[in-house]
């Protein structure tokens, strides 16, 4: 099982590298990795397991956070309306997005960042993502609000972008133009 020791931290080149496309169909090793990433997220959200193995909670994880520069990520979370999202994503890409922006009023965190970085992270409020799932099927997801934010955080990792790269330098709590707060 994956634990925190498998996650690279700030300063590791992998976090600032543009990851490579995965050739399809994914190899068994790549499928197993995605399954392990999903299992990590579920474990990290289970109080008993997280406590037992000292896991920080996460709703997403990208392969570069494991030092693997492949365009793969996993997400596992429930949005504020109770809709469940649990995906292993291969070559996820944003194919369209809203002009309107959104940000989490509580800011963001990252398992590869061992410190609290305060501030609003402006992102697109709505996005359409295309990807291949763990079984090799094409995915097209229309996402908004919290789900859109999480997917953008993960796709950023595939492009060597960290969440705090988006925070306003002079005033971290500057309300971005045309942006809505997600509580
Ligand atoms: O890349 C993934 N991580 O670093 C996992 C830890 N961070 C989170 O779960 C997290 C927390 C707050 C907002 C967002 Cl958008 C995310 Cl993603
Ligand atoms: Ni992260």
Automatic annotation (TrEMBL):
Binds 1 Fe(2+) ion. Pfam families: Pep_deformylase. It catalyses: N-terminal N-formyl-L-methionyl-[peptide] + H2O = N-terminal L-methionyl-[peptide] + formate. Its EC number is 3.5.1.88. Fe cation binds at residues 110, 153, 157. The active site is at residue 154. Keywords: Hydrolase, Iron, Metal-binding, Protein biosynthesis. It comes from the Bacteria. GO terms for biological process: translation. Its cofactor is Fe(2+). NCBIfam families: pept_deformyl (TIGR00079). Belongs to the polypeptide deformylase family. Removes the formyl group from the N-terminal Met of newly synthesized proteins. Requires at least a dipeptide for an efficient rate of reaction. N-terminal L-methionine is a prerequisite for activity but the enzyme has broad specificity at other positions. This is Peptide deformylase. It comes from Virgibacillus oceani.
